[in-house]
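We modelled the chain as a single entity of 407 amino acids. Its sequence is:
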Amino acid sequence: MNVMYFEKDKNYKIHAGRIINCDGFFAAGRAPGSTLYVAENRIAAITHRNEVYRFSRPDRTAVEVDLAGLTIVPPLIDCHVHLALDGIDFTAALKRWDNQAELDRSIQEQLRDTLDCGILAVRDGGDRRGIARQAKSRYNAPLIKSPVHALRKPKTYGAFLGQGTKQQELENVLDHLATLGADHVKVIVSGVVSFKEYGQVGPVQYTYEELAQIVHGAHHRGLKVMAHASSDEAVSLSIAAGVDTVEHGYFLSDDSLAGLAEKRIPWLPTVIPVAAQLRNPTTGGSDRHNRYVIEKTVERQLAMINKAPGLGVVLGVGTDAGAGGVRHGYGFHQELELYKNAGLSNSQILQSATLNGANILNLDWGRIEPGYPAAFIAVAGNPLDNLAPLKHLKYAFLPGDSTSKQQ
């Protein structure tokens, strides 16, 4: 896989076998044989190969790239990861937090895997040490969005995600996060899904007034709120409080789906961290009852994903990468396969994995159209016919250069 960084003072002419664009509703392919022109890090024009386009600054160095036989697709975006964890061994990952050299190696490997899988941006869900924030300042690609750490009540679920915050400390903590450069606020609204008792989820942590205060405080500072919320109670509370995305959302109801659609709140179903437990003997994969609970939980989540587009719910793709059994990068394509199992079309899945993700991360990516940033990937084959080519990235293209940070 090759990464190419566009230089602002050069003109680029890129011949593509096919271009897939997202128009806000679904992904669609342009006629084969298009040529894409890039100037000043943005798409200047798209023409058929026989058409002629003249750059506004023809005096600049021209670079021609032949991607004949390849398909250009908007960047894949993972809207929920944990770079501080590796998805293999939770305890070992926590120990690495105290060994900077080992931690650096692990982060670099995870980001390389992410990039190799065509994911050019990730949104982190936080960790107690702010490790993703550190990675954000050091690596060029993929682009990293970090909340620094998550907000949660003291003595509740999520100690590895963030120190407990008392409600009276909230304004000071939000100020501190904003000062540290947080890209969004992550709040733990509920506990986690049980793998032993079907339908059981850890308790809701906040009252409506408390959660609304967090949302208002974050929005006042220009920060969106991603809410860890499983159980219908937690999801409906999050909707009422005005969060910007609902993460997980296990056991949400049809009414909550309708609420998400009405408020235009994206949902990140994160199916793979639960489905992955079927392969893990320590969490129930080898226990008949636990396996039944996990399978039934996944089945219900897929059924709700199937309903979501028809109700107008905006779906993003988030993997919870770093959670047990979910490796960075690879888990993304497993999540896409689960969306396919839920009955979504390839077009709907591509829309969720690209443009919807870009909107969730406040990026003006996701469209291959004149005026938009020159950020896209190239794969062999047509993902509208078969998603498998997305696993085999040939090129990644990004605006900027590769000199300022590591890759």
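As a brief sanity check on the tokenised model: The longest helix spans residues 288-311. The first strand starts at residue 2 and ends at 6.
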